[in-house]
Amino acid sequence: MRPVPAAILTLTLGLVACTRALEQHPESGPPTMYRPKPSIAVWEVPRQTLSPASIPQIATELPTFMQIVTPRPTSTTTDCLRQGGSKIETSLSTSLLPHPMEYLVYLPPCYYYRSTQRYPALYLIHGQSYSHDQWDRLGVDDIADALIAAGEIPPFIIVMPRDRQWTQPEEDKFGQVVADLLVPTIDLRFRTLPDRVHRAIGGLSRGAGWAVHLGLSRWDLFGAIGAHSLPVFQSDAPQIARWLDATPRASLPRIYIDIGEHDRPSILASTRWFENLLNEKNIPHEWHLFTGYHEEAYWQAHLEQYLRWYTQEW
Asked: Is-contact 306 268, C-beta < 8 A?
């Protein structure tokens, strides 16, 4: 992987979930305060019946993993910055999930050369019907390489896990595995800064729902939440206010929310419901209503802005 010049950080639009092109006009400002009706529908996902399984206690379960790619150390700082970061594909096995959890790890330029340096970690979750390579395929690693090489953001690690289920969090144990198994595994295997201040979580679409779920219910793990085109989980809607109230004011995560103005009406309503709740509770957050649709072209166009926000306090 080689650094990409800053002049071409705006990537060619990749795979899109919709054939409609983005309209070209400036970003819209924050919408008028949105007050949802009591019957507002948050995102509903298909439910599936899982066969009963014996679930071990987290404290006694030791995850196993498999490393697929091991990059070589580089010789000089200049060389390693030019070569860019490295990617490792790994899986974590646990009886909490029917299949091993695959995940990609992006290691920043010079990770192996600077053998004593420790790094913040950003967890990025893909959208529904996609896989753990979605963020990488959209170019997040190339943009990170270029911004790090230019000295515009600090070096950091990216973790991109795969969620195979489409169910609500009480049925899909993906979130539990991320919080209780994946985070400690990453902190053991890689040179992270293992504290919430240096750990952030974000996601696209359903992945944004997971980012809000994990970032608020496990505020002890994550210091920042990025929700990109957010459909709130149906089962989370009654709990979000309680999670916010239970979090010490000084420990509230930084929150970034964005969505395209032409996104699906139900997802726009869900995102605005969440943003309105933050306003009602006087919780600081960054909110953007951009031009665009619920598609990969929209997310790809904002990757650089996302990374600059996640890393701005590192």
From this structure: no
Tell me the one-letter amino acid at 154.
P
Q: What are the structure tokens assigned to 170, written together?
A: 């009480």
Neighbours of 150 (CB within 10 A): 14
Can you tell me the distance from the alpha carbon of 178 to that of 308, in angstroms, rounded to the nearest whole number?
A: 24
Residues 6+ apart with CB under 8 A from 25: 291
What ranges make up the beta strands (E) of 101-232?
101-107, 121-125, 157-161, 199-204, 224-228
Q: Which residue has the tokens 């979090």?
A: 247
Evaluate whether the domain defined by 60-311 bears CATH number 3.40.50.1820: yes
Q: How many CB atoms lie within 10 A of CB 187?
A: 15
Count CA within 13 A, CB hemisphere, residue 11.
24
In the numeric block, the tokens 């790090």 are attached to 148
Using CA atoms, how far residue 189 sits from 28, 40, 119, 182, 314, in Å, is 43, 43, 12, 10, 21
pLDDT tens profile 158-179: 999 999 988 888 888 999 999 9
* 129-162 pLDDT, tens digit each: 888 999 999 999 999 999 999 999 999 999 999 9
Q: What is the pTM of this model?
A: 0.77
**Residue 291 · residue 28 · CB < 8 Å:** yes
Q: How far apart are CA 135 and CA 130, in angstroms?
A: 10
Integer Cα distance of 37 and 309 in angstroms: 32
Average pLDDT taken over every residue of the chain: 82
What residue type is assigned to position 120 of the chain?
A: P
Measured between alpha carbons, how far is residue 72 from residues 43, 75, 85, 109, 212 in Å?
A: 44, 10, 11, 12, 36
Q: Which residues, other chains included, contact 188 with Cβ-Cβ below 8 Å and sequence gap of 6+? A: none
Rg (CA), the chain: 19
pLDDT score at 4: 43
- Domain ranges across the chain: 60-311
Residue 76 banded pLDDT, cuts 50, 70, 90: low
